[in-house]
Amino acid sequence: MFSKGQLIFAVLFAIAFIILMAWSYMKDVKLHRVYYKKVWWVALGIILVITLFATATFWLH
């Protein structure tokens, strides 16, 4: 399926990607606290809209 070299590359790439993403997040965590205080309201609204749509879809059929 995959060669040994491809698997090694995939593992190293995944590790490097995760480390860089964590480093980037830690670097920006202070800005996230300032600019994204009320982001949970957006998530709640999205979940509510999806729930209402699913309920209406099942109710109408």
Plain-language structure description:
By secondary structure, the chain is mainly alpha-helical. It has one domain. It is built from two helices and no strands. The relative contact order is 0.06.
Q: Outline the low-pLDDT stretches.
A: none
Strand fraction = under 5%
**If you compute it from the alpha carbons, what radius of gyration comes out, rounded to the nearest whole angstrom?**
20 Å
Number of helices: 2
Helix content: over 70%
Order of helices and strands: HH
Mean pLDDT: 93
Largest sheet: none
Total number of domains: 1
| Class derived from helix and strand content | mainly alpha
Number of strands: 0
- Rounded to the nearest angstrom, the distance between the terminal CA atoms is 44 Å
- Tell me, what's the shape? flat
Structural descriptors:
61 residues, mainly alpha, flat
Summarize the structure.
This protein is mostly helical. Helix content is 89%, strand content 0%. The protein contains two helices and no strands.
